[in-house]
Amino acid sequence: AMSCAVALYTVAATTDRPTTWRVGLLTGTGPPPAGGNLRRPAVVFRQRTAEDRGGPRTRSPQGVLVRGTGGPETARTGPRGSGSGLSGTTRTAAGGAGGRTGGGRAARRPGRTLAAWTAGLLLLGVSTVAGCRAADRDGVTPVPQLLAFLPWLLVPAGAGLLLAALARWRTGLVWGVAALGTVAWYVQPYGRPAEPGGRPVAGLRVLTANVEFGRGASALIEAVRDERPDLVFVAECETTCADALTAALADDYPHRRAVPGTGSDGSVILGRRPLAPAPALPGTMGMPGATADVAGHPVHLLLAHPMPPLPGDVGLWRHELGLLRDHAARSADRPTVVAGDFNASQDHAAFRGVLDAGLRDAARLAGAARTPTWPARTAPPLGAQIDHVLVSEHFGAAGARFLDLADTDHRALVVDLTLYERT
User: Fold this and answer.
1) Sign of the C-alpha dihedral, residues 99, 104, 110, 116?
2) Which helix (H) or strand (E) holds 390?
3) Residue 291 near residue 269 (C-beta atoms within 8 A)
4) CA angle, corner 318, sides to 312 and 323, nearest 5?
5) Sheet holding 26-29, edge to edge
6) In the predicted model, is pLDDT for residue 65 greater than 70?
7) Taking 90 as the threshold, does the pLDDT of residue 89 lie above it?
8) In angstroms, what CA-CA distances link 277 with 256, 269, 274?
């Protein structure tokens, strides 16, 4: 700063004709200095004429910002302590060639731009799904499908936040923190577990499994023999599967209620205790009902298997879960067990409607609310819990276990329930 001040003073004192000069980032008037004895070196002078005032900016070899029209730019420097004042070595840079090249800020901008765009796309997708969850809506395809895997959206949310930091994108940082916090908030299990009041009267073990078009029937038979449940709910049990279960388990499970069908339409409820008939729930796939006698208390049973939220079938999926919600509302005041493949997780608004109607998730009561059951090929590290055992407030749950069955894309779920007599 002192060097620039001295230079300006020298220029102003030795001129007869005002001429505009640039020294560093400061401008003064006067003719070019003929000499001097500036103690600070590397002060650059360049005459600024009317022709080049509007020209592009460039930098001298010393890094001093100047303007020019593309012609040669001349900078004079003197060595430190040489006493040569403004005489010294003359350096010339042509046009904009004196600007920064190589690993400067401009060279880094394309990478930061790509990081910012990638972060924005990731955070937009996460925010769309998380926003629907927060708004208690399932939205349209692909939101219902992605909601089933809500906990794993922490990965793209975290990646988006990291990329925003690398891109030095402040808006993206705020956005990423908000998206990550929203997803983390909704990862916690839905609802509050509470033990039912009253006197415990009986224990009840329930097993539910989807055997994928009957292909997992043999593995299910082995699991039933090992676990010895009181009730077995089997989805996608077509005619061949139903016949196999009858032949292998008829002695231990002589009671059954079924909706016959082919492919994924058939469903069966097996029981050690007598099963009185009860209306089935109308749906695309079979959802049989029954009433079991448990220690002299009637327990209403229903196998749930609504349509999955396939693209084009989201409306049907939502409608059939609505039928299950209405059924839960009608049955909540009596002992009820609704088990099966719901094709929905706690992150779907349509499924939460079933819970809010008066039923509770037994796996949630047993502390296993987020254990995946589908797809079995990647569970438990990656998947969604779409197979459930829902119970009325007459039941408590002491434990939940998930079984890997061969030849099916679902894991089986076994829960140990306790029926309470409410006073």
Assistant:
1) negative
2) strand 387-391
3) no
4) 135
5) 26-29, 20-23, 45-47
6) no
7) no
8) 9, 11, 10
Give 285's contacts (C-beta < 8 A, 6+ positions apart): 235, 236, 261, 264, 265, 267, 305, 306, 307
For residue 156, cis peptide bond before it (omega within 30 degrees of 0) = no
What are the start-end ranges of the E strands in 195-285?
199-210, 231-235, 255-259, 267-271, 275-278
Q: Is 195 helix (H, G, I), strand (E, B) or coil?
A: coil
Helix (H, G, I), strand (E, B) or coil at 207: strand
Q: In one letter, which amino acid is 144?
A: P
What pLDDT was estimated at residue 57?
Answer: 52
Separation CA 239–CA 243 (nearest Å)? 6
pLDDT, tens digit, 9 for 90 and up, residues 189-212: 998 777 788 899 999 999 999 999
* Bond prior to 56 in cis (omega within 30° of 0): no
E strands, 12-100, in order: 20-23, 26-29, 45-47, 57-59, 65-67, 72-77, 89-94
Q: For 166-187, how does the pLDDT look when each residue is reduced to its tens digit (9 = 90+)?
A: 999 999 999 999 999 999 999 9
Which residue's entry shows tokens 């004709």?
17
Contact 361, 385 (CB under 8 A): no
pTM (predicted TM-score):
0.75
Read off the pLDDT of residues 208-254 as tens digits, 9 standing for 90 and up.
Answer: 999 999 999 999 999 999 999 999 999 999 999 999 999 999 999 99
Q: Which of 414, 415, 405, 417 is nearest to 236 (CA)?
A: 405
Distances (CA, A) of 10 to 64, 255, 417: 20, 111, 97
Residue at 380: amino acid letter: P
Average pLDDT of the segment spanning 81-87: 41
Please name the residues in contact with 278: beta carbons below 8 A apart, sequence gap of 6 or more.
257, 289, 290, 291, 300, 301, 302
- For 110, 285, 402, the CA distances from 359, given in Å and listed in that order, are 54, 22, 21
> CA 262 to CA 213: how far, in whole Å?
8
* pLDDT tens digits along 266-305: 999 999 999 999 999 999 999 999 999 999 999 999 999 9
Q: Is the dihedral of CA 271, 275, 280, 281 positive or negative?
A: negative
Q: Which two tokens stand for residue 420?
A: 């309470």
Angle at 402 between CA 398 and CA 403, to 5 degrees: 130
Ranking 5-9, 293-297, 405-409 by mean pLDDT, the lowest is 5-9
Q: To which residue do tokens 């089997």 refer?
A: 234
